[in-house]
Amino acid sequence: MADTISVIVTTYDRDDALAAVLRALSRQSDRDFEVIVADDGSGPSTASLIESWKDCLGVPLAHVWQEHRGFRAAEIRNRAILASRGVYCIFLDGDCIPRRHFVASHRALAE
Questions:
Q1: Could you report the per-residue pLDDT of 94-105, keeping only the tens digit for each?
Q2: C-alpha distances out from residue 63 to 29, 54, 77, 95, Å
Q3: What φ, ψ does residue 26 adopt, rounded to 5°?
Q4: How far apart are CA 111 and CA 102, in angstroms?
Q5: What is the rounded distance in angstroms from the CA atom of residue 46 to the CA atom of residue 63?
Q6: Phi, psi of 99 (to 5 degrees)
Q7: What is the pLDDT of residues 23-72, one digit of tens each?
Q8: Which of 6, 46, 95, 109 has a CA positioned 20 to 30 A from the CA of residue 39?
Q9: Residue 41, burial from CB neighbour count under 10 angstroms (0-12, 13-18, 19+)
Q10: 19 vs 4, which has greater pLDDT?
Q11: What does the alpha-carbon distance between residue 69 and residue 16 come to, in Å, rounded to a whole number?
C-alpha cells in the first residue's frame, strides 16, 4: 500500500472556487490521500460547504479554521500540517483546480 498524501487546500471566503477544487479532487485517479482545508477565517458558508462534501469526496476531508485577523495563510497552512496524517503534503491554493492525475503525479515524483 502506498503512503498517504495530505492535500492541503488554503481558502478564504471563496466557496465557489473551493467547490470546484473539491470536485476535481473527488475525481483523482490516485485515491490514497486526504484533504485538509486550511481556512483563514471564512464565514459559516465555507464550513457548511466542506461538511456537505465529507460524504461524497471519497477520501477523508478535514477542516482547520482560524479566526480572520488579516492575511495569515502561512499560519493556517502550518496548522493544517499539524492536523495531517500524510507522509507527504501537497499544497494547493483554494482557486487552483487540479487535473485528474495531480496526486498520482506528485506521488511518482516523491517516490
A1: 999 999 999 999
A2: 23, 10, 12, 16
A3: -70, -15
A4: 14
A5: 10
A6: -75, 170
A7: 999 999 999 999 999 999 999 999 999 999 999 999 999 999 998 888 88
A8: 109
A9: middle
A10: 19
A11: 22
Total residues found in the chain within this entry:
111
Confirm if 43 and 18 have CB atoms less than 8 A apart.
no
Distance in angstroms (rounded) separating the CA atoms of residues 92 and 111 = 20
Grid cell at residue 22: 473539491
The secondary structure of residue 51, as a DSSP letter, is H
State the pLDDT at residue 1.
52
Taking each continuous run of H as one helix and of E as one strand, the counts in the chain are 4, 4
Name the pairing type of β-strands 33-39 and 88-93: unpaired
DSSP H/E element including 24: helix 15-25
pTM: 0.94
